[in-house]
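Researcher: Here's the sequence for the chain we discussed earlier.
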Amino acid sequence: MQVHLPRPVIAILALLLAAPLASAQVSTPVAPTLEGQEGLNATLWMQTSAEASFAAQQAYRLATYQLDKALRDRNWSAAIEQTDFSKKLPPAIILDIDETVLDNSPYQAYLVQQDIPYSSENWENWVSQSAAPAIPGAAKFLAYAAKKGVQIFYVSNRGIREEAATRENLRRVGFPLQGPEDHVLMNGEMPGWTSDKTTRRSFLAQKYRLLLLFGDDLNDFVTAKPRSVQERFALLTKYEPYLGERWIVISNPLYGSWESAILNFENGLSPDEILRRKYGQLRVMKPVAALPNTSTATR
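Model: Thanks. This is the structure I predict for it:
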């Protein structure tokens, strides 16, 4: 027997049948790779944790007190390259840029969201926008230093092609750009100015008494590559009197030469090999025979 349904009912049934088909065609988000997930917590810590802001502001507040001490002590220098200098040299400070005064976590968040690795192309796209916000506490400290008559030099491993956009970014967030001398020293800007910042510190040490160094990487203070994880800790022991006194570090869990040290500074490793080596560096607890019920435990 043939059943004849009214046209409105047919239309409703057609819509009901089409709905699950349409929803089935909607692309389900693909779970990110393990490699892509690696940066998630670090990026969220930078962007959402009060503790990240706390740590940065704490570092720059400490720097304010240390700057005043350094100005009073004419024998004070933060640069190990500055072993013999005139007490009459004008005062200056050196700061790295990325993750020291500028926050590139929006770029890192893009990599995590898109599940893609760093590349020179996507990095230059980000830099060209001059959109990085200031690291908390940096602007206030730099304004204080400028008011005290201290020359502020930004020593960055960004390339010279990125200098104009970098300067614009520094201006946008209100950082001092003193003149007429060049106060933004880029990687490759002069012969011998490589990613090792020793030559740029030595260059400035000829004309200024370097009061404080700021960075997010050990190489912003002393040459730490290619050194092993253990050798990097040995450097901390050697220069312990400088830590928090003349060298001010800003926390950066996103990337750095610490990661390269884990990988023995080898390039071209596969994602699987990178993860294997990283997991191999973990210091793992040894569980006891019978663990207590920790279902409600918190850290």
